[in-house]
Design brief:
Layout lengths: L13 E6 L5 H13 L4 E5 L2 H6 L7 E4 L7 H13 L5 H6 L11 E4 L8 H16 L3 E7 L9 H9 L2 E4 L2 H9 L6 E3 L23 E4 L3 H5 L6 H16 L3 E4 L4 E2 L2 E2 H12 L5 E3 L5 H9 L3 E4 L2 H9 L4 E3 L4 H11 L17 H11 L1 H19 L1 H10 L1
Parallel strand pairs: 1-2, 1-4, 2-3, 4-5, 5-6, 6-7, 8-9, 8-13, 9-12, 13-14
Antiparallel strand pairs: 10-11
GO molecular function: transferase activity
Pfam families: PS_pyruv_trans (PF04230)
Keywords: Transferase
């Protein structure tokens, strides 16, 4: 029986943290698949419980929303002073995660933001949370991570990596960089958990020709990373016109993140307006990660900027071109195909508006070979992915 006054959320639990919310369906896919693999129900500490309730995490875990320090001026000032005057940098983190923090906890704390270490703004919080949970007696896991190798030349980051109880890198470029940096103990190479995401098929729009669609995903973030202003949208428009003019395939525009300030639909709606009168292009409405995978799985080809949109395609055996801008796209393609060249078109390298057409034509010419490769490697790849559950299960004992 629990001691009176002890919060039952805090005792020997599995906690998933650094979850940004299901409006990013890649974040949703990671949380969804990890929760299904765990030996007991998890607590997901989320940036937005409202988003998670709206999609596939509802009923799959206990949702606890983070405390928002910056939304309250006085609380923000209080914790700023705690850090500056009392030299307690973790005070704000204890408040942010207070539902799952306390002395002498033996929780298994799993950081599930796969590419969080790719963003400078998140590094401080990641390091503080890792140290805080460890000092409280818990274990910490960095799960499904991608890290730019250059970052692992920073001694402070290396110290942070070595503080984790376990690190699971989702692709070999990150894993090899960790090894080279001396972060070898309890460091594993296991594919992204979202490769195991379930597929849910909803009815398709009238112009959606199952098995003869080109699925397209584009993100504002990809556009922001371009080296030549406007070149990404130019390439997508040229590609759509090329597909409509030279093939009998139709096109599905598929959003994968719908956050207010980072919404795929803003760029996809622009493309849809340009070609909607052809009757051969559809814009898929927002839905859960499992339902989005259902649309992607019924495409013949897929070209995507969001990593987890391409993971949905790969795992559905759909020949895919990633319009990538970071290590995660290159690493995942390299592990699946032995090379990332031809399978990833870095958005930073775009300089001519016909380059995406060239990438699509290569994929079309290699369609059977690429599909055969995915059919060959995917069963073992998925079996390796299931090792996540076994690894986390041992740590949770």
């Amino acid at each position: 029986m629990l001691q009176e006054g002890v919060n039952p959320l805090k005792k020997d639990k599995i906690v998933l943290y650094m979850h940004a919310g299901s409006g990013n369906h890649g974040c949703e896919a990671i949380a969804n698949t990890v929760c299904r693999m765990l030996p007991k129900p998890a607590i997901v500490v989320t940036n937005s419980a409202e988003e998670d309730e709206a999609y596939s995490l509802k009923g799959l875990c206990t949702l606890v929303e983070e405390k928002k320090i910056r939304k309250n001026f006085f609380i923000h000032v209080y914790y700023y002073l705690k850090e500056r005057l009392f030299h307690d940098p973790e005070a704000a983190m204890r408040y942010r995660f207070r539902e799952v923090t306390g002395k002498n906890l033996r929780n298994l704390n799993i950081s599930i933001g796969g590419d969080n270490y790719c963003y400078d703004l998140l590094l401080k919080d990641l390091k503080l949370a890792n140290r805080m949970f460890r000092e409280q007696g818990g274990k910490t896991v960095l799960l499904g991570c991608s890290i730019e190798p250059e970052l692992l030349t920073d001694p402070d980051i290396i110290d942070d990596m070595k503080r984790y109880t376990c690190i699971i890198a989702r692709e070999s470029i990150t894993w090899e960089a960790l090894q080279d940096a001396g972060v070898k103990d309890s460091t594993y190479l296991i594919p992204d958990p979202a490769f195991l995401l379930n597929t849910v098929e909803k009815p398709v729009p009238e112009a959606f020709k199952e098995g003869n669609m080109v699925g397209l995903n584009l993100s504002p973030m990809a556009v922001e990373n371009e080296s030549v202003a406007g070149i990404t949208m130019e390439n997508y428009r040229a590609l759509i016109r090329h597909i409509l003019d030279t093939t009998d395939m139709n096109i599905a525009l598929i959003p994968h993140v719908v956050w207010k300030n980072n919404d795929d639909r803003t760029v996809l709606q622009s493309l849809y307006r340009d070609f909607s009168k052809t009757g051969r292009i559809v814009l898929i409405e927002d839905c859960s990660c499992e339902e989005l995978k259902g649309y992607i799985a019924r495409c013949r080809f897929f070209i995507g900027a969001r990593t987890h949109s391409t993971i949905a395609a790969y795992s559905s055996l759909v020949p895919t071109l990633a319009v990538g801008y970071s290590v995660k796209a290159r690493g995942i393609a390299k592990d699946l195909f032995g090379t990332w060249e031809d399978y990833v078109l870095p958005v930073q390298s775009l300089s001519q508006k016909g380059e995406l057409i060239e990438g699509f034509e290569w994929l079309k010419e290699q369609e059977q070979a690429v599909r055969a490769r995915l059919e060959k490697v995917m069963p073992a790849y998925l079996e390796r992915t299931r090792q996540i559950g076994k690894t986390l299960g041992k740590l949770a004992d």
